[in-house]
From TrEMBL:
<dbReference type="InterPro" id="IPR037519">
    <property type="entry name" value="LITAF_fam"/>
</dbReference>
<feature type="transmembrane region" description="Helical">
    <location>
        <begin position="29"/>
        <end position="50"/>
    </location>
</feature>
<dbReference type="GO" id="GO:0031902">
    <property type="term" value="C:late endosome membrane"/>
</dbReference>
<dbReference type="InterPro" id="IPR006629">
    <property type="entry name" value="LITAF"/>
</dbReference>
<dbReference type="GO" id="GO:0008270">
    <property type="term" value="F:zinc ion binding"/>
</dbReference>
<keyword id="KW-1133">Transmembrane helix</keyword>
<protein>
    <submittedName>
        <fullName>LITAF domain-containing protein</fullName>
    </submittedName>
</protein>
<dbReference type="GO" id="GO:0005765">
    <property type="term" value="C:lysosomal membrane"/>
</dbReference>
<comment type="similarity">
    <text>Belongs to the CDIP1/LITAF family.</text>
</comment>
<keyword id="KW-0862">Zinc</keyword>
<keyword id="KW-0479">Metal-binding</keyword>
<dbReference type="Pfam" id="PF10601">
    <property type="entry name" value="zf-LITAF-like"/>
</dbReference>
<feature type="domain" description="LITAF">
    <location>
        <begin position="1"/>
        <end position="74"/>
    </location>
</feature>
<keyword id="KW-0812">Transmembrane</keyword>
<keyword id="KW-0472">Membrane</keyword>
Length: 75
């Protein structure tokens, strides 16, 4: 199953319940690549990609048992 940036309905492989995933964002390769490019172009703005949700990976978790079900990577 391909996970996206929004919660999806799936059956958890751990607890076997049909759930809608909980999502959390985390810094990934895209975040650090964007920060590097911004640093070269305009150094004072380097923190913008590190704080922006649009540059971060999205981790999908089961709300019942807390198992990580998948990751959506920007790159």
């Amino acid at each position: 199953m391909l996970f996206g940036e929004y919660p999806v309905q799936v059956t958890c492989g751990n607890c076997c319940r049909t759930i809608v995933t909980k999502t959390r964002t985390a810094r990934g390769f895209c975040t650090y690549l964007a920060a590097y490019i911004v640093c070269i172009v305009c150094c004072p703005c380097v923190l913008i990609p590190l704080c922006s949700k649009e540059c971060k990976d999205v981790h999908h978790f089961c709300p019942s048992c807390g198992t990580m079900l998948g990751v959506y990577r920007r790159i």
